[in-house]
Design goal:
Blueprint lengths: L7 E2 L2 H23 L4 E7 L3 H16 L3 E7 L5 H13 L5 E4 L9 H6 L12 H9 L7 H14 L6 E5 L6 H10 L3 E5 L6 H6 L3 E4 L17 E4 L3 E2 L11 E2 L4 H5 L4 E2 L7 H19 L9
Parallel strand pairs: 1-11, 2-3, 2-4, 5-6, 5-7, 7-8, 8-11
Antiparallel strand pairs: 9-10
Bound molecules: NADPH dihydro-nicotinamide-adenine-dinucleotide phosphate.
NADPH dihydro-nicotinamide-adenine-dinucleotide phosphate (NDP) binds next to helix 10.
Length: about 300
């Protein structure tokens, strides 16, 4: 079926590739100044296959950008103090600029307590309480990768976000809350919506910018969108497989065909926000490395 699309497709894959190339281009100057490459350590606890795939692709992207990648694996039976001891070791390791603890952790572990042991200056996932506080206070710090990627795509499309009406649907620690803070920091007027929000369609209809981070397949409908709005779809949902198919289709939280007919621009799923996450992880590692080495932030990131 051919879908008539009025909206511009925001090509996150191409944008992320450009960002990764610029990061790789900035690494040699860091190496020349410090005598070492920026280093990212990824910690995987247990053997969840999806997490192992993510960790593998993060490692490959790190090396492709000219950075050092350190992968640490602990068994699914690892105790809290073992995880925290490894993180403390990485905090003290001068060759490590960024630490990423792959989530979710096995159920017997306290995720929040483990994350909180990461040195905030190496917290490239932006998930420690100190990073969240810095973001809220507008102090330079590490910002969660997915919402930062969304902000870059929005600024690329719209330029200055000042005075724009933005709605973020979803208030998770990983995406919704930091997204709201970033938009506020960019001087947008921000509405935060969640599962208890009343008359969500009417609120979405007022917005120039819609960020959907809900985890519900195709929930945001065409009739909810103000003509000309820019729509960022963070959701990744797999539909049940069609008859005879092994896997269902991946869709976002936005009904793409309906919304694309009304919006000015929209991110597709896949190929929109997804590729930005790893690119922003590399960006955070580069920035963390500069700050730790006492260098000015690299320009243009
Ligand atoms: P969470 O499940 O942590 O949060 C979902 C949020 O959506 C909650 O705040 C919840 O509200 C809200 N919500 C649920 N139902 C409704 C509803 N009917 N109306 C309005 N709000 C609702 O999810 P995440 O933020 O971690 O992820 C959201 C989506 O983004 C998922 O599909 C996930 O796979 C995807 N994702 C994609 C990434 C990428 O790289 N592209 C990275 C991270 C996530 P309440 O707080 O009231 O429960």
């Amino acid at each position: 079926m051919v879908v008539e699309t009025a909206a511009q497709v925001i090509d996150g894959k191409a944008f992320a590739a450009g960002l990764r190339a610029r990061i790789a281009g900035a690494v040699p100057a860091f190496v020349a100044a410090t005598g070492r490459a920026p280093g990212l350590a990824v910690v995987l606890v247990g053997d969840d296959p999806a997490s192992a795939v993510y960790v593998g692709s993060k490692g490959k992207a790190t090396v492709a950008a000219g950075m050092a990648s350190f992968e640490h694996r602990l068994p699914a039976t690892a105790k809290q103090d073992e995880v925290e001891a490894l993180l403390a070791e990485l905090n003290a390791d001068e060759t490590v600029d960024g630490i990423l603890l792959q989530l979710p952790l096995p159920g017997h572990l306290d995720e929040q307590a483990a994350v909180a042991t990461i040195d905030p200056d190496k917290d490239v996932d932006g998930l420690t309480p100190v990073s969240a506080g810095r973001l809220a206070l507008g102090i330079a710090g590490m910002v969660p990768c997915t919402p930062y990627g969304c902000l870059l795509l929005l600024q690329d499309r719209l330029g200055d976000l000042s005075g724009k009406d933005a709605i973020v649907v979803g208030r998770s620690i990983l995406v919704g809350k930091p997204m709201g803070q970033l938009l506020l920091g960019a001087n947008a007027t921000v509405t935060m919506a969640h599962s208890r929000t009343k008359d969500l369609p009417a609120l979405v209809r007022r917005a120039d910018i819609v960020v959907a981070a809900v985890g519900r397949a195709e929930m945001v409908k065409g009739g909810w969108i103000k003509p000309g709005a820019v729509v960022i779809d963070v959701g990744i949902n797999r539909l049940p497989p069609a008859e005879g198919a092994a896997k269902g289709r991946l869709v976002g939280d936005v009904d793409y065909a309906e919304v694309a007919a009304v919006a000015d621009a929209i991110t597709p799923v896949p190929g929109g926000v997804g590729p930005m996450t790893i690119a922003c992880l590399l960006r955070n590692t580069l920035v963390a490395a500069h700050r730790r080495a006492g260098l000015a932030d690299p320009e243009g990131f």
